[in-house]
Design a protein that fits this description.
two-stranded parallel sheet; about 190 residues; 7 helices; 6 strands; two-stranded antiparallel sheet; alpha+beta
Amino acid sequence: VRSARQPAGADVVVVRDGQLKQGLLNPDITVLSEFTSLSSNVMSKLHGLLEEGEVLIEYQNEYVKPHPASRIGATANPGDKLEYRHAESPSTATQARFRPVFVTAPDSKAAEHAAIKAQVASNAAMVSSQVIKKIVEFARKTRKDTNEDWPTLSPRNVKNVCIDIADGVQPFYAAKSEIQYLGHQHMKTDDA
């Protein structure tokens, strides 16, 4: 919700609106990824926006009313899955302001492999089916209950690994980089 400062020249600083503010002021769709991981401060601001129809940008001491055609979407994962066990559900009032759409993750190695392969199809020459199978197999091992302190690779993370491979990164290092990134996010850098 804060605005970002961007240097424009030697002694000039131009204040630019942040992505959320731009999304609200224009007829855009703003997607809040990992909704259940948002800080309580952001959740409070969001609740105020949804309840009052405006949000205070404290940095600029400015109330912003959204464009009538702007929309907010949010993604969240169920708290019953091991990799999302620390997520907290938003309040019932906040949940009631969203239309839920449930999408399940592939339940087998073969289904996950097919889904990832389809998503990186344009890069098929650089990411072989065999490499994708190995990455999916490794990712599924990270999701086992015995690895509760380890970062886990979701299908989205597997897709990111494949994109890195397509960009020329060796498979081992692409997977290692994604796991280290996830470990950093969850303060599990030693485990990663």
